Amino acid sequence: MNEKDWDQVAGTFEEEIFNVPANDTKGHIARWVDRLAVPDAVATDLGCGVGRTLPMLAERFGKVYAVDVSSQCLEVAAKACGNHSNISYVHVDLSTDRKSYPATDVVLCINTLLNASLEVREPLIDRTCRSVKRGGHLLLVVPSLNSALLTAFRHLQWNLKEGMDPRTAQKEAALNSKGLEHGIVHIDDVPTKHYLREELEATLMDRGFAVEAIEKLEYPWTTEFDAPPKWMKAPFPWDWFVAAKRVR
Ligand SMILES: C[S@@+](CC[C@H](N)C(=O)[O-])C[C@H]1O[C@@H](n2cnc3c(N)ncnc32)[C@H](O)[C@@H]1O
User: Fold this and answer.
1) Ligand 1 pocket, CB under 6 A
2) Can you list the domains of the chain with their CATH numbers?
3) Three-state SS string across 64-88, please?
4) N or C: which end of the chain has fewer CB within 10 A?
């Protein structure tokens, strides 16, 4: 999705865009934010959208940069967070523009590195990493490729239990995924980058980070299927949460 797409979604963001922090039932994100919070430190919410996580940061850090490519989303965020005077709003396309805010102690980046195009995604990842001060932390949430494959398996299992013949069951459960070998899976017809745990470790190490934690943010099966059957329980689908320290 590009700037125009995100602008169009700004008014209906809560209905259309899955709310990761609200569904972080184990509190991984909040716990890491609390662990790193220092009153005079500076944080960035990179791809802040309509500002779901801005109050959490603004209450714990001295200064917060709310960064997004969508001016419409930033407008909604600024309205919603009007009572927090320590937030600066930065309109920038991090895949093409020069970074127009300083590197900060903590960068929270929830489901922003999703673009299927490598030409867009690589500079976006580079600038995300460079947004973290040396010695600072990146708190990252991205879709899991393993989880997408587990969802396809569950779909197949469900089809077989319903009595479908194996051939049709497999065909029907196949992922719509040109580029699956590079982690591209279509979500609601949008090609979306999904990540392996090992890929995240290698990507971050390559950019001077030491990974301190990788956790699953687990969600119920209703996030993947309308009315999933009762037997469909754990293992549940998940996004990856990564906490990494910039060491060089
Ligand atoms: C899935 S939304 C997540 C929003 C927010 N982090 C949340 O959890 O609610 C992704 C956000 O990243 C922003 N984004 C996507 N590509 C970007 C880019 N190249 N530069 C800056 N922001 C970008 C979008 O505008 C959108 O607000």
Assistant:
1) 6, 17, 20, 47-49, 52, 68-70, 73, 93-95, 110-112, 124
2) 3-143+188-246 (3.40.50.150)
3) EEEEECCHHHHHHHHHHCCCCCCEE
4) C
